[in-house]
Amino acid sequence: MTIQTLTDRFDRKHDYLRISVTDRCNLRCIYCMPEEGMEFEPAEHLLSYDEITSVVKVLAGMGVRKLRLTGGEPLVRKELDVLVAMLSQIPGIEDIALTTNGIYLASRAERLKQAGLTRVNISLDSLNSDRFKMITRGGDINKVLASIDACINVGLSPIKLNVVLMRGINDDEIADFLSLTMDRDINVRFIEYMPIGHHDSQWKSLYLPLKQVFDVCAENNWSFESISSLCSNGPSDNYKIAGAIGSFGLIHPISNHFCQTCNRLRLTADGYIKPCLAWSEQFQVRRVIGDDEAVRQLFLEALSTKPESHEMAKHLLEEQTTHMPTLRRMSQIGG
Q1: In this structure, is residue 320 part of a structural domain?
Q2: Does the annotation list 266 as a binding residue?
Q3: Which residues make up the binding site for S-adenosyl-L-methionine (predicted)?
Q4: What is the distance, to the nearest Å, from the Cα of residue 284 to the centroid of all Cα atoms in its chain?
């Protein structure tokens, strides 16, 4: 029997699944969730590791090759290495990555690597300890820096650092982040602040287009070139400063959206398929897990609704969008 692949009506082939394992987080980053008032899913509402593995087995048969585990903070979920081991044994799965804030990673890096984890993305929005604590509402930067070293030591490389740039908050640290790439095999990825779950005046005041990164390179007389060899599942445009060991990337969903090459679907911690990060459409897959054909058809149905663009730039211009924006926060979707 020929299995239908995950190709949408705009001829985009989907071989990448982002899996949120929890909506909880040990931090409260200012761009991700409010300081108070978040309601989290009870543990029994979350997909079990067996349920997640069952879904991935179906999708591997439809061409999915790359996975990313996200949250919330995925390492607040107990024994995440057990899930990694289960997923790594699925025929066809070639790459399993993790996005984390790094607070709990140092002591678990080796176990995750042995289980089959391929790479890590670590969120780090400031190199200043006080500012980092302010952005994360209480985070300890030293734990994150220790996790970076631990990942280098166990061979989880290249390490990607995710930096959400915010006007007036951390945009004065661009040069410092770029300097990290000079003598370490690190990919610093600057990310535009996205209006997921909110597009209020605070977001508009903090939003900063990533052209600023090139301006900082010019101010420091750093020449750079575009590179394409970096292992990547995502939408980053990657560059290397002349003489640097590492590299930097730009993810600019607002100023230069990448929807035409989108290759990813999302599975939320509470069992919904999200065909697009920005829009409200979602499909409950948990009710059909165990029926592989029903799972397959539900993913195809979800993919048939995927729009051509997320239209996030329209929020900045206060223009009408063609779909209903999601009200779920980034931590509730999985990023």
Answers
A1: yes
A2: yes
A3: 31, 72, 123, 194
A4: 21
pLDDT tens digits in sequence order for the chain, 335 residues long = 556 889 999 999 999 999 999 999 999 998 888 888 888 999 999 999 999 999 999 999 999 999 999 999 999 999 999 999 999 999 999 999 999 999 999 999 999 999 999 999 999 999 999 999 999 999 999 999 999 999 999 999 889 999 999 999 999 999 999 999 999 999 999 998 876 655 556 777 888 889 999 999 999 999 999 998 666 556 788 999 999 999 999 987 665 566 778 889 999 999 999 988 767 789 999 999 999 999 999 999 999 998 887 555 445 555 565 556 665 666 666 65
Residue 194 counted as an annotated binding residue: yes
User: 264 labelled as ligand-binding?
Assistant: yes
Residue 278 CA to residue 163 CA, distance in Å, equals 20
Q: Is 329 assigned a ligand-binding role in the annotation?
A: no
Of the candidates 118, 26, 28, 36, the one whose C-alpha atom is nearest the C-alpha of residue 69 is 118
CA atoms within 13 A on the CB side of 45: 13
Within a domain: 7: no
Q: Is 22 annotated as ligand-binding?
A: no
User: Could you tell me if residue 10 is inside a domain?
Assistant: no
**Is 29 labelled a binding residue?**
yes
Q: Taking the CB of residue 288, how many other CB atoms lie within 10 A of it?
A: 17
In this structure, what CATH number is given to the domain that contains residue 28? 3.20.20.70
In the chain, the number of structural domains is 1
Does the annotation place 231 within a ligand binding site?
Answer: no
Per DSSP, 171 falls in state: G
116 in a labelled binding site: no
The residue range of the domain holding 304 is 16-333
